[in-house]
């Protein structure tokens, strides 16, 4: 694993969350087939894509990834809300079976991996990666 990723994980103070972050790197690597890359904000990302808004603003971001924050693991690219989009509806069904989590604008917060069903999490990661 890249030294920057290892250093980021080593800085996680809560031992259980540090272990979960290491496990999440393994899971996301297995599901995506990508090696982790450290992005700004200590986001550990897998794959990237270029986006462009109607306003003209554009940039690059992770297809899927996470940040090991103090309060929870913050996962990116796993939940999508596009009106009545089929992928969003399927994700809603998956989320109902995921376990204990909270959401923010485009983020999924998981306190500990033991709180969620790993098979459902893997499916959310796969769908997020393929949609990116």
Write the layout of secondary structure elements.
Blueprint: H1 3-10, H2 15-32, E1 37-39, E2 43-52, E3 58-68, E4 73-76, H3 86-96, E5 102-104, E6 107-110, H4 118-131
Antiparallel strand pairs: 1-2, 2-3, 3-4, 4-6, 5-6
Helix pairs in contact: 2-4, 3-4
Q: How are the strands ordered across the major sheet? A: 1-2-3-4-6-5
What do the pLDDT scores average to?
A: 89
Helix content: 25-40%
Assembly form of the protein: single chain
DSSP summary: helix tally = 4
Order of helices and strands: HHEEEEHEEH
Share of residues in strands: 25-35%
The tally of structural domains comes to 1
**Shape annotation:** globular
Report on the biggest sheet: 6 strands, antiparallel
Distance between the termini: 23 Å
> How many beta strands in the DSSP annotation?
6
Poorly predicted ranges: 81-86
Structural class label: alpha+beta
Measured on Cα atoms, how large is the radius of gyration? 14 Å
InterPro entries: YdhG-like
Organism: Salininema proteolyticum
Domain YdhG-like: 17-127
Protein name: DUF1801 domain-containing protein
What does this structure look like?
Residues 17-127 form the YdhG-like domain. This is DUF1801 domain-containing protein. InterPro entries: YdhG-like. It holds the Pfam family DUF1801. The protein is of the alpha+beta class and 132 residues long. The protein has one domain (3-131). The protein is 39% helix and 27% strand. It has four helices and six strands; from the N terminus they run H-H-E-E-E-E-H-E-E-H. Strands 1-2-3-4-6-5 form a six-stranded antiparallel sheet. Strand 2 and strand 3 (58-68) form a beta hairpin. Helix 2 (15-32) packs across helix 4 (118-131) and helix 3 (86-96) packs antiparallel against helix 4. The longest helix is centred in the first third of the chain and has 18 residues, at 15-32. The two termini are 23 Å apart.
